Amino acid sequence: MSDGKEDAIELLRELAELATLDEGDPQSFRVRAYESARHGIEGHAGDLRKLSLAELQKISGVGKSTASKLRELFDTGRVDKLDSLRKKHPASVVALMRIPGLGPKAIARLRAELGIASVDDLKKAIGEHKLQELRGFGKKSEEKLSAVLARLAKDGADRRTPISVALPVAEKILAELRAVPGVHRAEFCGSLRRFSETVGDLDIVVATDAPSALMERLVALPVFDHVLVRGDKKTSAVTRRGLQVDVRAVKLSEIGAALLYFTGSKGHNIKLRQRALDRGMTLNEYALAEVDGGRVVACETEEDIYRALDLPWIAPVLREDAGEIELAERGALPALIPASAMIGDFHVHTDLSGDGRSTLEEMVGAARARGYKVLAITEHAEGLAMQGVKRDALTEQRARIRAMQAELGDTLRLLHGVELNIGPAGELDYDPAFRASFDFCLASVHDHFDLDEAKQTRRIVTAMEDPTVDMIGHLSARMIGGRPPIDLDVAAVLEAASRTGTALEINGALPRLDVSADVIRRARGSDVTFVITSDAHHTSELGRMDNGRALAHKAWLSEERTANAWPVERFLGWLERRRARPSGSVALS
């Protein structure tokens, strides 16, 4: 049985979301209480299920009411308050919350006055221009919402589930299924295993001797809203957030073939099947076998199947039919940048930022535990409402960092950095002299998301040309499945990054994964430099660097073009030369 942490986090996340709808205010006391409790739970180590009501209340942010709900969850598997909120605000209404430009108060009015209770209802009302008649909306609001919905549809975000939602669900289901007697192995496959930023559905393959027990446990999981198909070989169910989960039971001897079949993209699998036919074999979800006679050639492991097809093993994230099979034939597959190559993290917040949840000392300790040689502390700059840090507080932090550095010696190099806000015209926080006093500066877009392509591109390029900006953070400012990316001339941005030597961040936070794999691929053949970061706001989030490495691997990025995979001396030399560059010039690596 799990320690209850993930179940508690999901409960509090859903309660906060539904309370926002219920009270019409994302900053209400109740919503903030749930969020505060969730942050406390995220930082807690140990088995929550074993804690008494009083012990739960000792966790930071967890009050008596929340502790009671947690105990109710652990003791009964459900929470009355959550059930009542779900009835009042069904999943179709919650989906409206994920549309940029629609807040809880607006949704309440749309429901009350126009009967809108789903995204489809909203699209229909916009098509009939009903929002123009609603006080507080009007023609301009209707046009903006129409444009947002069109962009979400174009990106597939209106039909697919973000990886930030799908991955935790998959991991929770796998943990439950692996505990079923008779299960030898359980893995998720499909686009999630390929580390795609969104998934259409979730494929899970399980090697088991007891398929009936497996499926019985599956359909009883509280994450599901309803079951579509139930059988011993395949069962399909839909989660409360609308994600379809298909679970297939196979023999242990077939697990390799099943993983291969249900992981690769359609194009990748077609090429493998053709490759098999060219060699007198057939390939399906059960085995690679000879056409004549049906003798099984390989089925137990993916490696065996690739080897029998005269190929090295191809990592799941690469199986997109993007030239990886041809590279494999030449022995030139891109390698995953190993965790050991990461010298440090260069986008980290502490509790000095309004949304940070770990102290400076805790972040430094966690970075040392990960073996980092360099760490940049980058609080939000003052221009970011509610979260930004004033100049005096940053100056005080710098003194603390310098004192810590004296104690650390050569074990960990601390850089005092800052995350600047890029204004609509490319302006930055603070004056140039104060910006130049930082060891490392990244600059990010946090507002004015609806500017046109020319203006968005100009603001990014202007920021790049400022000599104090070392890196552009989360370039597109997207939130996968929520906020669409800003409009950018990517070619112009990449040219400016190359010209100025400004690095682009690969942000490992699952809701962002920004820059995208597509942007990294478009930079092939250039000398654009990338930096993989966690954008951590808590010590537990430093592990998001692994997501950034997976994204870099998917896009075929090499260590040579990843600055924090360089030796420390090379990285610091690059940074020093950047600091000495005039405005708009090239900084050589």
Keywords:
589 residues, alpha/beta, Beta Polymerase, domain 2, five-stranded mixed sheet, 24 helices
Summarize the structure.
The protein is an alpha/beta fold. It has 24 helices and 17 strands.
Q: What can you tell me about this protein's structure?
A:
It is a single chain. This protein is of the alpha/beta class and 589 residues long. It folds into four domains: 5-155, DNA polymerase, domain 1 (Orthogonal Bundle), CATH 1.10.150.110; 161-250, 2-Layer Sandwich (Beta Polymerase, domain 2), CATH 3.30.460; 256-329, DNA polymerase, thumb domain (Beta Polymerase, domain 3), CATH 3.30.210.10; 342-579, TIM Barrel (Alpha-Beta Barrel). Helix content is 42%, strand content 14%. It is built from 24 helices and 17 strands. It has a seven-stranded parallel beta sheet, with helices on one face. Helix 17 links the parallel strand 11 and strand 12. Helix 1 crosses helix 5. The radius of gyration is 25 Å and the shape is globular. The model has no long low-confidence stretch (mean pLDDT 93).
Low-confidence stretches: none
Average of the residue pLDDT scores:
93
Can you tell me the CATH architecture of the largest domain? Alpha-Beta Barrel
Q: Which superfamily, in CATH terms, is the homologous superfamily of the largest domain? A: Metal-dependent hydrolases
Distance between the termini: 50 Å
Give me the number of helical elements. Answer: 24
Q: Give the tally of β-strands.
A: 17
**Helix/strand structural class:** alpha/beta
**The first-level CATH class name of the largest domain:** Alpha Beta
Radius of gyration: 25 Å
In total, the number of domains comes to: 4
This entry's quaternary arrangement is: single chain
Helix content estimate: 40-55%
